[in-house]
Amino acid sequence: MKVTIATDSFKGSASSIEVARAIERGIHRVNPSVICDKYPVADGGEGLINTLEQTGDEIVTIPVHGPLFEKVDAFYLKRGRMAVIEMATASGLPMVPEDKRNPLNTTTLGTGELLLHALENGCTDLIIGIGGSATNDGGIGLLTALGAKFYDKNRKELIPDGKALQELDSVDYSKLTPLLAKSNIRVACDVDNPLCGENGCSAIYGPQKGATPQIIEVMDKSLRHFAKISNKEDVAEMAGAGAAGGLGFALCSFCGAKLESGITLVLDLIGIGESLKDSSLVITGEGKIDGQSVRGKVPVGVASLASKYNLEVIAFAGDIGSETEVLYDHGISAIVSTTNAAMPLAQAMARSLELTEDAAFRTWHLIEMAQKIK
After folding, report:
1. Among candidate residues 263, 289, 324, the one where a domain is terminated
2. What is the pLDDT of residue 18?
């Protein structure tokens, strides 16, 4: 029997390949003959480069501006003329201490510096994962790195962070690097939110980045103004324009980029379809699974592809949230909690791999029992 294992990382506790190996160990404690075909998977956020990296790839590390304009070392993957950029390495939320989280003060400048370096390094085919951001600047940081200028009413150039959008009066895109016109940019996007409104980036993702209700109102109004003066109000309504605090909007509007489902793009690039052709079962998972997982997250993306091969899908999760019932209508056959007792979150995360292995052990006993009943 062959099982395809394709899980996301359990953020803060285990990488996707570590989770997959833990599941394999649990299965083999019951039946060592089961073939486990393991694929680390990401949806466009943290772990994208690790997921796609192959032998012979070059990891290019350069100094950039972090989300608070501090100097940090960030990196991208280079494979010939292709580059894979993970914005979380330059503008990610974990890079901002909790007591300093305020999306009015963060920038995508470092992500733009990564992109510019890749373009100048001869890369013409680029994949940019934009999950896990600390930002809500509408992408003006990235665009500044690429040569755009943003001014207030006194024609003073603005520092490209979230609060700059409140003072924005005019824009100049004439100096954007011409290398953009020679490139093909695919954006791995794990959300489908528009730029503004009740489902926009400020309202939905602002709180986790430190925004108060008052800040959310200001940011939403400012982003709407940015789209208007850029004459891109139609793009602002697109699904995914609100990804990474509006970075999806900027990449589509001014860089010729195409937004794609991050998980669909990744599954295609890693060639998991070949494994599914002769598998009997698929196992997936993520750290927390809930009703929001239908919006481009790994388990539902994996389940969607598995359904084309008429395969059942089991999802493992450390935390099972609300509204998971909807997942059963999107290809998930069963959801299994990895925790086996009430325990503090910190303890569950510290024991993540042990608990996942034990959950796989228990689950495989059930599967073998069901086969005997047949």
Report:
1. 263
2. 94
